[in-house]
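User: Can you predict the 3D structure for this chain?
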Amino acid sequence: MNSLGRSAAIVGSALAIAVAFGCGSASSAAAKRAVSPCGTADTPTWSPDGTQIAWFGYRWPRPHGHANGSYNTLRAICVSDADGKNLHKLPHTVCSERCSNALREGVGQLEWAQPNVLLAGSDAGIASVTIGQKPTTLARTGPVPFSTDANGDRVAGAPYADGCMSCHGPVKIFSVPSGAVVGQVGGTKLFNGDPSMSPDGTKVAFVRSSGKNAEAKPSIWTASADGSHLQRLEQNAANPLWSPTGNQIAYLVPKASSVAWRLVSPQGGASTTLLQSNAPGTIFGWSPNGKWIAYPDSKGRLAVIDVATKKVRTLLKLQLPYSASSAAWSPDSKQLLVVWRPPAHTSCPSGLWRVPVSGGKPHLVHGC
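Assistant: Here is the predicted structure, written as structure tokens:
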């Protein structure tokens, strides 16, 4: 699949703690409930078959005197059934003050790439988490979103974040099973970043810029995964996102006081405007069937737009802070897993909800 979304501007911290789950206090003076890292939750994702969900969790409430950062707080990748039952932490992913595993920097993006493999993005790069085994560093990339193909066999990452002046280097495509570099795209002389893999993993769309100054105009290019067939697709554009059906690429065109999301064929040609918005250029991603794109509208509401008809359906009012990793599509494209409001009558900052695209009532799956 393509990554869960691209964000030209993250609302709040990229690693903001977004959901809380009460761990409970001592049931008696003699027996205390074990402290769980599956308290707060961020970066939700679905298993490929849709029967389970996962997120990166932190202990809640935090111990007295501990900072908001991830470096000294108990944390782990947490998994439950899609209805929130059978909650447990993944073995070997638990981390606290003294942590040597590949998740020690926290997780800003999480994707369940294969039935038994999750990919986790952080400031340190991309980690591969095979269920039941210790996490390993798959690729040392920048603190930027990664993108996988539909089968989760390949992942693309970049060395620098967008807007990095005087940065230059290629987008790299890695084999998920082996970690080997499949290809390098864009060369070493220019900035290349923000990759989006084609569904079959044979091509990649990405942003290219001279990177010499803040005014350097980015453009969107495509190339084969081995670095060949380099082609400019659009000028003065950013944030490409390849459709799961493979026949369209969505991208952002920044304007003085708004942004426009446009669609273009991977082969090039005339583009069409899908949406104009005054909201920051955040997107939660294509639905797996390629019918919808989810995004926050200018009023901070979760919305989906039908790509064919351009009709918009608003689902709920989002809660700050949110980022491109705050919502994830279900494999059947019928619902979104969303970091949203806390359960009633709790001190939790937020909750994790399943939100039907049909407009039905959201269902709480994780909270205090």
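The chain is about 0% helix and 40% strand. Residues 1-137+319-368 form one domain.
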